């Protein structure tokens, strides 16, 4: 049993019900945050996937083949750092979040959540949006990780990636579209809100096609991401090739499955991630 997703930042208001509750960061969505579907069922074996126990759940491995108030800095609400209508990289902007913490998107598609000046311990989280256990990990650990970041007790780094091989369809393409779309969100606080939206709407199973580009555009509208630049970036999957390259780099560095957590470079064991309290202890022990 883990904490619900989108739990409030310390001192923030209580979230709305269900997995689609309004995020604790970003501007208030017009009409409120729309509820998402119920949590996905456990994955089924097959499709060239190996399975391993990590973080208290089965995690998919690649089989190689062939709170509350945000002040966004820069950008406009309609574009949200989504880039121009044609080519060009998305303009990255630091998002200010409750309690003095910042959400800083990086050029490789990762995002740092920390108070200014906090350099250790570094908690690296490798995630795949098509992986059901990444969604379960997010529901269990996300509120605690936010608390540590706001308190200045850890530097949290999210690393979206694609862990599935191209033969593992439709999971590979689902993951690639989602991670590529997230790269189109230049503002750090909206990045966090959009990540919540992706987890709230995970495909029902590994065999279910999801995250259509039209859906990915729609998920962003309540966050104020409505500009033509953002829409074109998502629909054209501008960052798909970069996501593939970055993902392969993570795999080459030793990431074998998702979710995977490293603290100051050390990969945590199953026992370290089996609960929010266990993960907190592992992080605090590295301080």
From TrEMBL:
It comes from the Bacteria. The chain crosses the membrane at residues 49-72. It holds the Pfam family Thioredoxin_4. Residues 1-44 are annotated as: Disordered. InterPro entries: Thioredoxin-like_fold, Thioredoxin-like_sf. Keywords: Disulfide bond, Membrane, Oxidoreductase, Redox-active center, Signal, Transmembrane, Transmembrane helix. One of its GO terms (molecular function) is oxidoreductase activity. Residues 119-284 form the Thioredoxin-like fold domain. Belongs to the thioredoxin family. DsbA subfamily. PANTHER family: DISULFIDE BOND FORMATION PROTEIN D, GLUTATHIONE S-TRANSFERASE KAPPA. This is Thioredoxin domain-containing protein.
